[in-house]
Amino acid sequence: MRLSALEVPDSRGRARRAVTALQFSAATDLLSLGLHVILSLGVFTEEVQGVPAAGVVFLNVGGGLLAQVFLLMWFHRVVRQLKALGRDIGDSPAMAVWWWLIPLANWVKPYHLMKEVATRLGGAHFASVLPLSVWWGANVLSRIMNQVDQRIIGKLETADGGMSTAGAVVGLIAAGSALVMALFSIQIIRALQEKLDQRRDGLEFGDGPVPEAGAEAA
Fold it and tell me: Does residue 184 contact residue 131 with C-beta atoms inside 8 Å?
């Protein structure tokens, strides 16, 4: 089992890429948040709408998609390593990724998968201290606000000819929730990857002396 686990490439590189993408996504969320603050206050509305607003939206959507792709790549590798370590979460690595993309199921299942991964890596206490509930709550709130913006606020804007105050407030909540989700995603990835690195280092050193960092953790 030890040799089989070491044959699976580690996820450190993917974790670094996911964190970098999430940091970029958080920066675009911050820009979007500032944009909606300006729109909700009605300051420089004509100057902000148009090309500047479209540029922020483009960066925000692109950054979010990029972060999601790298997050799922990292998650796939983590589940694969857990399976090789004999700590199967009940789904194959591919299926664990598909749950994030299946409509309706992706409102609940990813949270339970992430919690199961945390439990397998560090136990129930470790999973309980991670901000998983806040992370997923922000995700759900952001998605709900985006749906409200597209299906309700958007129709009000077409009749009015410009962004309404309600639209700016909804966008403000959505951008703030997305920013919170990105920041907590970074924290969760780093915590889980650290636990996984400790287990992998233990396998590489076998019964011999462990690194100083691992000894201190023990």
Answer: yes
53 neighbors 63 (Cβ within 8 angstroms): no
CA dihedral over 169, 171, 172, 177, signed as positive or negative: positive
Tell me which residue of 128, 139, 125, 114 sits closest to 193, measured CA to CA.
Answer: 114
Q: Give tens-digit pLDDT for 131-186.
A: 999 999 999 998 898 887 666 655 555 444 445 566 677 778 888 899 999 999 99
Residue whose tokens read 């009000």: 156
Global pTM reads: 0.80
Q: CA 76, CA 176: separation in Å to the nearest integer? A: 28
Angstrom CA distances, 38 to 19, 143, 147, stand at 29, 22, 22
pLDDT at 1: 67
